Amino acid sequence: MNKIIGAFLAVSLLFCQSVFADQPTTVLTELKSGKQVTLEVPVIDGANDEVFQRTANSLLRSAAEDVADKVGKQGTVTYEVTLNRPSLVSILLKGNNGGRSYFRAVNIDLTTGRDFTLDDFFFGGEDREKLLGKHAENVLFTEEGIALSDKKGAAYAQKFSYQELLPLARIGDIGRLLTVWKLTETSHGRILTLKKGDLFAFKLNANPSTGYQWVHTVSGGPANGLNKIGSSFVIPNSQKEQVGTPGTEFQFFAAKEPGTYQFKLGYQRPWEKAGNIKECNVTIVVK
Fold first, then answer.
1. Residue 81 and residue 271: Cα distance in Å, rounded?
2. Residue 178 DSSP symbol
């Protein structure tokens, strides 16, 4: 009987871990009142790692107190959760003392307990500078995109959608920030319905050493309505040193314009006339 109970508890624990693995972050409010100031301090609870959770909460508490200092320790400090993901949360703190305001963004990665930045998800360089300007340092992440302030303490008035930033995305990391709809070869002959701005990715069996590669074509819908934004190839960890090992190819696409698209993937040697040895054709409907 004890073995049965033990096995049941172990299965229950694994079930609970899987259920909570992809849930949004819980943010509670701790009210602090002084003689002339009232603070709403955001407090994270239920994170997978308690050490990182304590580090994150210490950062949030210090940030709230800093905002209170910036408005002369008078008035109120409030906050708004602007982005909530299973391991990422962004919070906008606002201090208000009469006509005096001060804003501060805190973007926390709960896998480290520290701040995350644009560099964690988007490449730098001339293209990003051209879009965002030279000094994109005061950044607030939101559900729809990022917001920038001209200087520390100012409102986050400049807004850029994630769609605008997609060409700069770090493909291996962007799935933590944005929803990516995943498809495989078994999607053949089916329909995927998306919203404008959504990302989708194909997970495909491949072996580049054979010369075969997955090639895509798109018909229907506006020109450039579906854009490829990157790809990566992964081989099994246990066989990384072996040349010619088959693995998994990921191809990432962005749905940029509404329309109905016929999306075709063919596994082929482009220089041969034999055509595809495997195909995956999916109808993509972007609303």
1. 52
2. S
- Model's pTM, two decimal places? 0.76
53, part of any domain: yes
In a shared domain, residues 198 and 158: no
State which of 170, 202, 233 marks the end of a domain. 170
CATH no. for residue 111?
3.30.565
Cβ-contact 214, 185 below 8 angstroms: no
Residue 202 belongs to domain spanning? 179-286
The pLDDT tens digits for 211-270 are: 999 999 999 999 989 999 888 888 776 555 565 788 899 999 999 899 999 999 999 999
Helix H or strand E encompassing 164: helix 162-165
Place of tokens 């450039």: 224
DSSP state letter for 146: E
CA atoms within 13 A on the CB side of 11: 6
C-alpha 247/C-alpha 213 separation (Å) is: 12
Alpha carbon distance 106, 60 (integer Å): 7
Query: What's the residue count for the chain?
Result: 287
Element housing 64 (H / E): helix 50-70
Tokens of 107: 């973007």
